[in-house]
Amino acid sequence: MQNLSLLSAERERPSRFMGSLRTALAMAVLRDIRPDLVIFDEFQKFREILIDPPNVSPDPVTQALRGGIRAGGHGVLLLSATPYRLYSSRQDEAAGLSHQQDFFQLIRFLFGSEMNEPKEIERALLDFGGKMLAKETPDFEQLQMLRDDIQDRLRPVLSRTERPNDKVISPDEKPGHPHSEILPEDLRVFKHWVGRLQEAKNPGRSKIDLMSFSVPYWLSVPLPIQMMGSGYVAWRRAEKGRRRREEPVLRRSQRDRLEAPKHWPHPQLRVLNKIAPPSRLALPWVAPSLPWWDLHGAWSEPGANGGKLLIFTRFKAVPPALASLLSFNLEASFSHRLRRNYRRAGEAQPLQFKEGRTPLPALFFPLPTLIAFTDPRRDKPSNLTEARNSMRRQVGQFLRARLKVEVRKSGGKRPLWKLLPALENARANIIPDSGLPSWHELRVHLRNAAAGQAEVMKPVLAQWNEFAEAGSDRSVGPTFVWTWCEARPCLGFVYEESHSKRTSTRQQLGE
Amino acid sequence: MYRRRGGFGRLEERALIFRLLKGRFPPLDTKSFAAKCRGNQAREASWNWALQRHEDMEGVREIQNHFIEALRHDKQLNLAGVDAESLFAVR
């Protein structure tokens, strides 16, 4: 019995042994791979790696990770949206833990052995803060100059990039509060909500006045009788037994046919629908904040790079209500493509890898041959069309000159997933000393990358292999290059209506 | 605990440690030392899967050397010498 308890105590104790082994492994890997750059993502979580507490010397791993400070060591790139605490209480500040100190320590770390510049920046920041908080109106020109000076001094070590707000606010417009109005449907919801509360079950000895909650709930929660749920006393007691004529609700039949009401009976929800319309929510990812090419389609529309939306609310019922109704609204806007079938909406996952989706991995397939033998920037293109033309020329040249493949202007068009393995296999056979992985090695990498879905990947790779072995002896038209260039930036076509004259990615992939 | 997000997970890290040590010191290739490296969280199947991933490693000798070197200088372990016996004796 005693032995058992000792054993369990040892198991529960954090293993110092394993900690040491992991540290040693980290050191070994750092020495082995000799990185040029170490990236700390969300570095605010690793503060102890950057800044030592007083009178504490850093451990060997920490020292090794900071290698960039010394000449000849690796560089360190720190990424964070919150590089220092934005708020500190009076107690914190009294204890010397102010958010300013956080930031100053960070600057000192970033400048390394350069001692004077951080002091100058600290002085300028304190000066800036003092002027901003002064009772009298500050001299804005002077403030602007001070700000620019701080930015210039920080730029060698700190790059600040944020999503630009593309909305231009006119001087007359009051920013931050979109206009909303109450429609008759909203009042009908209120009338029936109040009616249901008035007919609530007798609470017995309870002194809760349900009616006092009617307005706050109605203001915040869209369709309260459907969205609040049993977590709320008001909802539990409200009369729910009978249907009420003219009460705006989302009926099951509407849901099943993906029919969203023309106007949602809630003013804030309607405004939210305008801020985040289905065309924006349908995007699989937000537009880049610093695009490398001209954006098209839904990504070029205002708000496409809007990032996250924060919603503040008093009630727990609001987030699920908004999420489900916005989501339903989105599905309903694609109802014609989902054949007005609610079940189909849940099943439509165009980028979900599963059995029978042989072409899908081609979208995410890094092609060593093209990476090694072509360069989209070789001809210094100024736009995407020029980049595509350049790539088309380069691939054509590579196919003709190195792989001895006949390239014709017209001819049959093979889907991407058949071409890629054929190209890789041909390259490995004809240029065996290229230093690139063989087709067999690529298959192993792909199988490993599939990890949890290795069983699904196996038959897909078997099919790919058939076409790899069939070789690239068939004529390869220019469509091949075009398809490759188009596929990645234009993934949106999978989601978009194909009103464009160009073929969709799905068609390109031969799905 | 061991859920990975695309990258190298803690389980693979532990499996790599076991792989490096048992490769250099075959007497450590025992069930009890494997259990010590594996910890209490991982299931048998996932541990075996992680071990399999490190079966064939290019340049394993180099990493092993660096690893042993790092262990030698570890102040927490404070080993007189890095060998199977001293590692197995660590609690």
| Strands in their spatial order, largest beta sheet of chain A | 1-2
What share of the residues of chain A does DSSP label as strand, in percent? under 5%
* Structural domain count of chain A: 3
Number of strands of chain A: 2
Strand content of chain B: under 5%
Uncertain spans of chain A, ≥5 residues at pLDDT below 50? 1-10, 474-511
Q: How far is the first residue's CA from the last residue's CA of chain B?
A: 23 Å
Q: What general outline of chain B do the C-alpha atoms trace?
A: globular
- This entry's quaternary arrangement is heterodimer
Helical residue percent band of chain A: 40-55%
How would a textbook summarize the main sheet of chain B?
Answer: none
Average pLDDT rating of chain A: 80
The assigned structural class of chain B equals mainly alpha
How many independent structural domains of chain B? 1
Structure description:
The complex is a heterodimer of chains A (511) and B (91). With 511 residues, chain A is mainly alpha-helical. Chain A has three domains: 30-154, no CATH class; 184-347, no CATH class; 360-509, no CATH class. Helices cover 48% and strands 2% of the residues of chain A. Chain A contains 24 helices and two strands. Chain A has helices at 2-12, 16-33, 47-50, 60-65, 90-94, 99-111, 116-133, 140-154, 184-198, 211-220, 224-227, 233-237, 252-256, 267-275, 278-281, 318-333, 342-347, 368-373, 384-402, 416-430, 439-450, 454-470, 479-487, 505-509; strands spanning 37-41, 75-79. A two-stranded parallel ribbon of chain A has the order 1-2. In chain A, helix 6 runs antiparallel to helix 7, helix 20 crosses helix 22 and helix 21 runs antiparallel to helix 22. The two termini of chain B are 23 Å apart. Chain B has one domain (10-89). The longest helix of chain B is centred in the N-terminal third of the chain and has 15 residues, at 10-24. Chain B is 57% helix and 0% strand. Chain B has 91 residues and is mainly α. Chain B is globular and about 35 Å long. Chain B has five helices and no strands.
